[in-house]
Amino acid sequence: MPAKRFSPVVLVAMVFTAVCMAVTFPAQAQQPQQNIVRMPSPSKEESPAIVMQYFALIVIAAAAIGANLIPSKRGHQD
User: Fold this and answer.
1) Domain map of the chain by residue range?
2) What is this structure's pTM?
3) Which residues contact 14 (CB under 8 A, 6 or more apart)?
């Protein structure tokens, strides 16, 4: 069985990727450690809105109760 050959486009893409990786890896190693990105600290902690939580609870409970109140359409064979 003859060996499968790569198309020229695939070979060019592989060489381009290898060259880009060879160029960027040393540049990343030389970066100073001062440029570390840190998350900002919040100035004050906000408490969640209690009213919205109770409203969501009422909506979910009403939906559950409403779904249970819908009569089932059972036939005479049940």
Assistant:
1) 7-31
2) 0.37
3) 6
